[in-house]
Amino acid sequence: MRALAGLCVFWFAAAVCAEDTPPVFTATAEMVVVDVQVIHNKNKIAAPALREQDFQVFEDGAPQEIAFLSRDELPLSVVLLFDLTATVRPVLRRLAGSAAAALAHLKPEDEVAVMTYAASAQLVGDFTTDRQKTMAAIVQAAGRGSLEAAFFNEATYQAAFQLGKSSNPASRRVVIWLTDNLADAPTEWMRAHLGKSVPKGELHTEAQAIRMLHESGVMVSPLLLKGPAWIMDYTLTKTFEGLAEISNPPGDVHKYAEVTGGRVFDLRGKQAVDQRLAELIDQIRSRYTIGYRPAQPKTAGTYCKLRVSLAPGVPLRPKEWSVLARAGYYRK
Q: Are 239 and 130 within one domain?
């Protein structure tokens, strides 16, 4: 079973609330909030409703006492990150004409920003709860193009950085990423020739992008386009960039999803991208939020490994299910 873990670090404690009202938090104590999903290994459906006692949380191998468990109660802050490569733009244009139905699966309090990227990432529409503004930003993004290289690490870093500036500090932070997963090696030669929108010396690495994801408490959930063109381009890219990738990992959506506890949604054949986006949003909504106060004090900046698993006695067959959650976080 995969045991990864997802989190944001907040300062709050639960206040008294009505039976059917989402919890209200006030700042009194450090709390680590872990975003978790339990998925069936074969059919990929989410697990039925689980209780606090059905989970175990470990920080650096030490068990932690769960303080609270909720589901779909905290608002979302979402960055829609769109790849501008030639294979993805037709899909993005289709999404621009039909995204309204998918966005309707968000709650009114959920905020969305829109970004595009090739070599560098650009903000098209800032965080808003106004769905009409988000739709306009998606249409604007669909009209863009680029002849630059595709630097995934730079795009991921900038999207996570943007989420760190979201208006709601207590939200669950998500990057929904439409891409073909065809990244270019982020070398200085490639930047100088096909990525001049990134200033010299400012191209971020995979390690820096992953750290920013952990520091910002961001989960990555890609919509992955796969097809014959993708396979051909990928083969050619690996032929010419293979050596460069050894010392300069270009980034991979599967890896970013895994370390943040996200799930990759494939786009295949004639499947409507707006329907797949709606399914992805519903899956995000079905995730659990687990909160705990770390048992051991640690200095600021310390990286803490996390593991979330199903507890003994859970009303499921643990070998049939995977727990998706973040791999770790940095103490603040």
A: yes
Let me know if 235 is exposed, middle or buried by CB neighbors in 10 A (0-12, 13-18, 19+).
Answer: exposed
Q: Is residue 38 within 8 Å of 323, Cβ to Cβ?
A: yes
Spatial separation of the C-alpha atoms in residues 60 and 316, rounded to whole Å: 26
Q: Which amino acid is at 273?
A: V
> Residues 46, 103: one domain?
no
Q: Does residue 23 have a pLDDT over 50?
A: no
Asked if 158 and 266 sit in the same domain, the reply is yes
Q: What pTM was estimated for this model as a whole? A: 0.86
Amino acid at 130: D
- Report how far apart, in Å, the C-alpha atoms of 110 and of each of 76, 166, 167, 168, 174 are: 5, 11, 11, 9, 11
Q: Per-residue b/e over 141-164, b at no fewer than 16 CB within 10 Å?
A: bbeeebebbbbbbbbbbbbbbbbb
The reported pLDDT for the residue numbered 247 is 64
Q: Two tokens at 29? A: 């104590």
- CA neighbours within 13 Å on the CB side: how many for 297? 2
* Burial class (CB within 10 angstroms; exposed 0-12, middle 13-18, buried 19+) of 203: buried
More confident residue, 58 or 240: 58
Same-domain pairing of 233 and 111: yes
Q: Order of strands across the sheet with 172-179?
A: 121-128, 111-117, 76-83, 172-179, 218-225, 265-267
CATH code for the domain of 14 = 2.60.40
> Model confidence over 118-156: pLDDT tens digits?
999 999 999 999 999 999 999 999 999 999 999 999 999
Whether residues 154 and 276 fall in one domain: yes
| Domain region containing 51 | 7-71+286-330
At residue 225, φ and ψ (nearest 5 deg) are: -85, 125
62-64: strand order across its sheet: 62-64, 55-59, 303-310, 328-330
DSSP-derived secondary structure for 111-163: EEEEEEESSSEEEEEEEES-HHHHHHHHHHHHT----S---HHHHHHHHHHHH
